[in-house]
Amino acid sequence: MSAVLRTVNRVLLGVVGLVLIAVGGAVLAVGLGASPPSWWIHDGPHDVLLSTAERTRRRDETWWWPTVIAVLALLVLLALWWLTSVLRRHRLGEVLVDTGDGAGALLRGKALQSVLAGEAAQVEGVARAHVHLTGRRDAPATRLRLRLEPHVDPATALHQLTTRALTHAKDSAALKALPAEVRMKAAKHKAARVN
Q: Closest Cα partner for 137 from 82, 90, 189, 190?
C-alpha cells in the first residue's frame, strides 16, 4: 500500500471513528436520561428512529424506498470492498533486476518466491517454508514463515537461512538489500514412548 493510500486510509478511519463515537455517545447519553439539544433527532430514551409518520410520508412515491434500499446496499458493498482491500496482503508481482546496461530486466515475483521457498526448505531442520514478497519492485522485501522440526535450534536455522537462501536470492537478483521478516514455528510431533 503506498504512502498516499495509507494516509487517506488513516484519515478516513479517523473521521468515521470520530463520527461513530460522537453519535453513539450522544445516543447513549440520551438513552441514559440526559436532555437532548433541540436540534437532536431523538427526544428521549423511548423515541424511535423512524416514526410512523416518517415511514409512511413517502408511501405514494414508488421510487423512494427502492432508492433508499439501493443506496444503503451500495454503501454496504463499498464498505465490504474497502475492508477487503485493507485486509488483503499485496503481493509483489515483479522485481526489477539491474543488468548493468541501464535497461534492467523484470523477474516474476512468483518465480523468486518459489525459488526462495525451495532453498529455505532445504535448510537443515526446516519442515516447510512459505515466502511472501512485499515492497516495491526496485526494493523488495520478504516475509518467511518456517515450520521447524522439534530438534532444530532456531538461531542455527536462521543463520543458515540468512547466509544461504536469502543471500543467494539477493545476489542472483542483483539487489542492494533484501530485508526479511522471518517467523518460525515448531512442527507438532508425537510424544516418544519410554520403555
A: 90
Q: pLDDT band for 75, please (50, 70, 90 cuts).
A: very high
**Which positions ≥6 away from 105 have C-beta within 8 Å?**
96, 97, 99
Are 65 and 53 in contact by the 8 Å Cβ rule? The answer is no
User: In angstroms, rounded to a whole number, what is the distance separating the alpha carbons of residues 172 and 169?
Assistant: 5
- Report d(CA 132, CA 31) in Å as an integer: 49
Q: Mean pLDDT over residues 166-183, rounded?
A: 87
Strand (E) positions, the chain? 94-97, 105-108, 126-136, 139-148, 180-186
Give ∠ CA 91-75-16 in degrees, rounded to 5: 80
Q: What is the pLDDT of residues 29-40, one digit of tens each?
A: 888 888 877 777
45/116 Cα distance (integer angstroms): 62
Share of the chain above pLDDT 90, in %: 9
Q: Say what the pTM is.
A: 0.52
Q: How many CB atoms lie within 10 A of CB 48?
A: 9
Distance in angstroms (rounded) separating the CA atoms of residues 80 and 68: 18
- Angle CA(129)–CA(132)–CA(135) in degrees, nearest 5? 150
